Amino acid sequence: MLSVKASDGAGPLRNHDFRLLLAGASVSQIGAQVTLVALPLVAVVELEASPLQAGMLTAAETGAFLIVGLPAGAWVDRMRRLPVLVRADVVRAVAMASLPLAAWAEMLTMTQLYAVALVTGLATVFFDIAHQSYLPVLLPREQLVAGNGALETARSSAQVAGPGLGGALVQALGAPFALMADAVGYLLSAFFLRGIRAHEERPEPVVGVSLRAQVGEGLAFVLRHPVLRVIACATAVSNFFTAMLMAVQTVFLVRVLGLPPGVIGLMMSAAAVGGLAGALCAGVLSRAVGQARVIWLSTVVTGPFALLWPLAGRGAAAAWFALATAAVFFGGVVYNVAQVSFRQMLCPPELLGRMNATLRFLVWGTMPLGAVVGGAVAGTAGPRDAVWLCAAGILLVPVPLLLSPLRRMRDLPAPAGTVTP
Q: Cβ atoms within 10 A of the Cβ of 223, count?
């Protein structure tokens, strides 16, 4: 069983172990945001990758969720979560550090970029599943929304600072050497996580139950629950078209809008202000309009801003791209805080890993497919047409939510309850 500290009425930031978890998330996210700028630039500028190759690189980063997404949850449920987090950080640090070393030796290739993207993606699968499953170990139920909001605030703050830092490092050092910041971030994250003192018992061995049966329990838990099922559907659609955008945005910004690396980094930082605002407002909005209502309302209100992406042009008109991303990120973060907190409240501790893995498989598994489609469309019809397709797809995200019981609910059902209007 997992031990959770009882609430003393204070917020999660009063919790020493949660502060370490938050610090680790903050430094690793800053490094990851540097990579968000630098890694595609290594491919597009340094190695002159085609749009399809850029899409394949994004697919390699997220393809691990299709490869090991489901069994990873069952494996995580058989282990203590903290050691999984530390080991995943170390693996990612070593993999990322290999890129600047190869560049220094003048041996860097697209093959190595694909390999590093896949290895870090595999480690990220285990890290993300264990991370979402570990938060209820540190915080009581009533602090989960605040805890997830703090983690989203850290992630969004990194999205504000990281791309600008990444753009500056790329211009000063070159794209391959800027990636060392990501390796350092992962190592610092592992250092902070090692300082967590919360007791976490090793899960009891499951006798006579196969890995396949355990995976099936996670699938059944998600697919039979009407709210989880519709959340999975909407998020999968969102991630498919977001991955399309991630696959083509560097090509679009460099070759269509003519932006240098430093401006690209600043643009991504400015756009991420929306995500930070969403993290700061998520708790207030959930209380004001209801945790169920805010899930679909956040996507309905902010989704149409995606149509500004393909309307961006050279010069000052490039700002439309940043504005659109800021608005969509705002809605996406509010949506994520509400639905992730509900998942953590709903699920029994022994199923957390498999529930999170099932949802990650269903919603992140669409990302490599979206990345490949985005690269293919950009390579044949052009980057701007690919961005138009991304924007149109984002408009579809609220559809399954509006056709579900969520539309008639203000708040989400209690964990032991049933879904009622």
A: 13
